[in-house]
Structure formats: structure tokens, C-alpha cells
Amino acid sequence: MTEWDIKKLRILRTLAEQGTVTRTAEALHMTPSAVSQQLTNLARQLGVVLLEADGRRVRLTDAAHLVLRHTEAVFAQLERADAELAGYLAGDTGEVRVGAFSTAVPALVVPAVAALRRAHPGVEVRVRETEAAESYELLSAGGVDLALSLAAHAPTARDPRFTRVVLLEDPLDVALPPGHPLAAAEGLRLADLSGDPWIYGGSGPWSEIARSACETAGFVPEQAHSASGWTAILAMVEAGMGVALVPRMVSSRASGGTVRVLAHDRPTRHVIAAVRRGAESAPALSHVLAALREAAAARR
Prior knowledge:
With about 300 residues, this protein is of the alpha/beta class. The chain is about 45% helix and about 20% strand.
């Protein structure tokens, strides 16, 4: 029977994700030569060629992709085994590391942690603020146990590495400066603000979301100011410097100006929780997921 080495298979999967031996070594805290040696040994054990030269890089062979398809099932089963063993050994205790984007921390993670302290005091949550791409790299590599991100920037539901849970549909409201002529207008539409100066990020996910929402409403927003933090964006709106789209999770914290719910063509974003496939049955992790669902339900 062919020998399957879990450690080496994990290195191969990380190489498929990272693309280069150097980045794989960095992700796994190994040296590039150690990565290459482990993969050479794995190829010898399996009796197939796993890598081929592609200029100064390496490329996975068809045999490597075949191995990886089976590897995902193996890792999922190991996660389930770990989950069952953790439940047997620890019962209602354990540590769960959560990677979450900035607005999800106060809106979802903090209420969930507060509820867990009351209901399951043995479950300890460690929170790490992350960007979407970083959170999934950490999740895949075992750096976090649960990742919170927007659906638009999460791996697809067909990704065999993860189990996804839709937590929340978060509408986007529009923040208007004090005294804006449309502050009390009935049936406010996004297109009604096409002539206003807009405030949104210069790049990244939120910039894409804001521009896409306006373009769907039929106009290209004039970007008067650029900011990526909600404190800065809301401060500029309140100072009369422009209008902005603001997630409902954030708009509830606005202290000045006017936040209006759009009556028509209201854009939304979806908040996703993801765990490594098979790990969702771990007692501590399942408690955290349940608490996040409850926190999301309270915002609907």
C-alpha cells in the first residue's frame, strides 16, 4: 500500500495555495530547502512526479492535483477526529482563535464572546483582526480556527478546505451631512445622490463595494475624499465634506449627520463564517459558531 505522510501532504497543499516554495516556507515557518526536501521525499514515497520546472518556479503535475483531491478528504476526516477527541477529553472547554475583519469585531464577535462567558465560561476566545485574504491563509495554515469575512472576498462554497456559514445580510445605508437637502426626503434612492461628493476607500474591498453599488444604481461616484477607516469616513460626513455608504453594522455608531435607509435598490453585503472542513463539530468551536449566529440574529 502507498505510504501517505500527513506532514508532507500538508506541505504540498500549502504549496498549491501559496504558489512558490519560498512563500510556502514562510507560511509554514520552514526553510525553502526543507520544503523541497520534504516534497522530494513525498514524491518518492508515492512513486509519482509531483513537481516540474516552470522557469525559475515549480508547477504541480496532474498527479499532484490528483493527490490533493484525496488529501482534502483526509484532512477533513482528521479535523472531525480531532473535534471528537477534543469533545471527549475537554468536554465544554477549549480555546477558539477567531480572525475577523474590523467592523465584525464590535458588531458580532464582542457580543458573541460576552454571551459565551455567561453560557460556556470554559470556552476561551482569542480574537485577531485580519483582512479577508489573511484570515483564510491563517485558517488554512491552522493560525486561526474560525474566519469572519464578507462573502465577496471569501473562498467559494465549493472550496473543499472550508465549511462556510452565512451569518448576516448587512444592508448598506447612506450617511448624509447635517442639513443635507435630502435628509428627510421620502423614498430616497442611491441615484438621487449621484451629484454629491463621495467619501470611500482608495482601494480594497470597501472601495469595490461602494463603486459597484453606485454603478448598479446608474452612476459613477465622484470621489471627493478617500479613507479606509469608518471613524475617519463618518467624521468627514459629519463635517459636511461628502456622503458615504455605510454598513448597518457601522451606521448604528454614527453620532452626527443623518443616516438614511435606502428605500429602493438598497445594496447589501453578506457576512460569512468559515472553519476548516470537519472541525465544525468540535464542542468549543460549535459554541462559538452558535454565539455568532445569535449575535447576527439580534442585528436583523
